[in-house]
Amino acid sequence: MNSIHNEGRSLSSVKAGQTVERLFELAILLVDGLEGGLASRGLTRARAELIWQLHHQGPLTQRTLSQALRCTPRNVTTLVDALQADGFVTREAHPTDRRATLVTLTAQGRETATEMQAGYQQFARSLFEGLAADDLASFAAVLEQLLGRLRNVASATREQP
Amino acid sequence: MNSIHNEGRSLSSVKAGQTVERLFELAILLVDGLEGGLASRGLTRARAELIWQLHHQGPLTQRTLSQALRCTPRNVTTLVDALQADGFVTREAHPTDRRATLVTLTAQGRETATEMQAGYQQFARSLFEGLAADDLASFAAVLEQLLGRLRNVASATREQP
DNA sequence: TATTGTTATACTCTATAACTATA
DNA sequence: TATAGTTATAGAGTATAACAATA
To answer: Which residues in chain B are closer than 8 Å to A155, comparing Cβ atoms?
Structure first.
């Protein structure tokens, strides 16, 4: 008797658990796939994110980069060192603040960023290829809801950890 | 004129790109949230995954663990060293193969695994709370399709990198 | 001869703390 | 005094290669 009474709730609960499992699996596959593509260009995820920021925002100080990447200034030093050694970025003098350095993409860095962007869009198209527009739209809508909840949790956690 | 002709395809393409961006954001939030919870128990993601395997499959050799975790045997040595030092696992003699060691959860390890599982289910319920069963079902269906594609890509990449 | 786990070594990401040059 | 970036040091995950004990 209880089984009938609880059926809806139990099923939803099980479904929710399974779906979260799938979401985690998806997360892992996405990140792994991304890193595989980056490795073939001699990049790691952290270094690629730095290039990505510069590509979208133009030259930035290391201070700004450390905030954009949510890591310490010391960490940015290491990343920029590596990217500079591999020819992706240069350190330029800041026009008005002699303490700061402007990290700037080289031609090679810009080319790499452009390739990453193209690969990303190609990946997006192939992932959803053949999916009905309606299905994509409703999937995206639920995804947006989930993201809203998660962003709230994340920002609350950052403020009061 | 071209804009009308291409509208459907362009819109889908844009939507696909946006949705992939959201998927990546979701992946990051999921992993970050997970790691926050683990850190409060003195665990890292890699160590938690090892505990998770033992919890679901019982005592395993390090060889088997290295395959389950997709990392080198050497890496497993480091993880087991750390987990053993913190009291989560022990190394036991293999009953028939004197080369192998069986990594086994301690009482503390089992308790931690149980807590992780409870937290995971709680998280799953709260993430989907209030979402209509239909929406959840169709979301899960699309998710399953995407996973199918990604798994193919991933396994193909592993075999011919 | 093949397999299990280890020592040795190295690279990457990350962090805190102390310090230099500049604002 | 505060800020930008560095040196110094450390922990964690990961990898390859060489080696021991055992199968």
So the answer is: none
